[in-house]
Amino acid sequence: MIAVSELGSFSAAATALYISQPALTRRVALLEAELDLKLFIRTPRGVFLTDAGRIVIEPARRAISETERIKRELDLIHAGSRGSLLITGAPNLNLAHIGGLIGRFQQVHPEVDIRVGHSRSTAAALEAVESGTRDLAIVDSQPTSDRFALTELWEDDYFAVMAHGAKTAARSHVIPTVTADMIRGRPLVHMPRSSHPIEQGQALFDMVGVEPDSRIETEHCELLVPIAIGGHGVAIVPRLQAMRAFEEGAFVASPPERMTATISLARRFDEASPSVMRFLRLVRTAKASARTFVPKLLESAESLAS
């Protein structure tokens, strides 16, 4: 209809649209029959819009323009340069390392709307992905369901953080190993078991054969170290938190047996947007590149102090 109006004849419009004139004529006739109104006046001088045609033509132009705009937007989403990337993770995880990757992704794809939130636990983060409210979950354990696909990020080491005491060694360039005397009589500071079933703190006490004097539970991971130091307790935290605590004067020791957690990105196995797939490709590229993806494992107090 728009081509006929702009070019003034069915034959010219048919040529511009790469269809036959009879086919175009039938399409316009079907539209007129559906509306029960004539849209064009056919004269020897050409084809002109009727009053009804003039009413229809502008909304038709807007509809074509909006359709083209939608198609362009969808093409950008398909290319991964438009869309959204919604990430969530439990507050007990060390998420600092992934921040750089998110920043790099935003530089390459500035039109992608990126939002990073937190869930009460790893299980809650996985539920958010499964329900479709989030695209990716940062997790520290293997999901029990086969509905998720995992992309490994890094392996995080855990350290014991506590206040200095009679049984703790003086600050040195060697990280001591936790002993029974070092933590005997101290309370264990930990996250709620209901939301964080992997409890490294209890595992540490089990390794040295003693029981915590008491337990202090907090839902806020940022309070683990301050409570442990202020209450002469023990908290088991990822290495980045241990580094910060060491710099602030806390006593840091390594478990008798190495304690680690594999941090991964989980997505729905059967569904992922172009933005998600491009972000995961960036993660894999970063891991495979010559640059260190995350800081090397802390092996000495000198590493912590440097």
UniProtKB/TrEMBL annotation:
It comes from the Bacteria. Keywords: DNA-binding, Transcription, Transcription regulation. The keyword Methyltransferase does not apply. Belongs to the LysR transcriptional regulatory family. It comes from Naasia lichenicola. It holds the Pfam family LysR_substrate. The keyword Plastid does not apply. SUPFAM superfamilies: Periplasmic binding protein-like II (SSF53850), Winged helix' DNA-binding domain (SSF46785). InterPro entries: LysR_HTH_N, LysR_subst-bd, WH-like_DNA-bd_sf, WH_DNA-bd_sf. GO terms for molecular function: DNA-binding transcription factor activity; transcription cis-regulatory region binding. CDD domains: PBP2_LTTR_substrate. Residues 1-50 form the HTH lysR-type domain. This is LysR family transcriptional regulator.
